[in-house]
Write a structure and sequence with these properties.
Layout lengths: L1 E4 L6 E6 L3 E6 L8 E6 L5 E6 L1 H9 L1 H12 L9 H27 L10 H8 L1
Protein name: PiggyBac transposable element-derived protein domain-containing protein
Pfam families: DDE_Tnp_1_7
InterPro entries: PGBD
């Protein structure tokens, strides 16, 4: 592991060697504690390697990012344009719809609405449109 700290200690860049080097920047998790994790080696065996706190925190919370990327890729808004601003606008619109749908599903569960009565993502997008 290697790390670089900014002059005001607000941002920390950490480099961790996994199968390839992983570089992470954080203003939330600092130097932190290191723990050990099981790592699959190319020699077909598990090794226990030290892992920084920022990597551990990312690994435990990355499920939401993967789910979000998956949901955006299902019904991606395609705009045929040369201007990058229109692509950005379409992506921001997709992100807002996905976040709204996730909130809708969460609220429907809290209210006890049956899953058959909740809208799926495609019908939710049509309803918003």
């Amino acid at each position: 592991m290697q790390e670089v700290i900014s002059n005001d200690s607000a941002v920390i860049l950490k480099k961790w060697f996994d199968n390839n080097s992983v570089i992470m920047g954080s203003n939330f998790k600092g130097i932190g504690d290191t723990d050990t994790c099981k790592h699959w080696d190319k020699k077909k065996k598990y090794l226990y390697v030290p892992r920084p706190e920022v990597v551990r925190h990312y690994s435990t919370c990355m499920g939401g990012v993967d789910k979000f990327d998956f949901l955006i890729s299902i019904y991606l808004t395609f705009i045929c344009s040369i201007k990058w601003t229109q692509y950005l606008f379409a992506h921001i619109l997709d992100m807002a719809i996905i976040n709204s749908w996730l909130d809708y599903v969460c609220e429907a569960k809290c209210l006890g609405l049956p899953t058959k009565k909740t809208l799926d993502l495609m019908h939710f997008r049509q309803h918003v449109a």
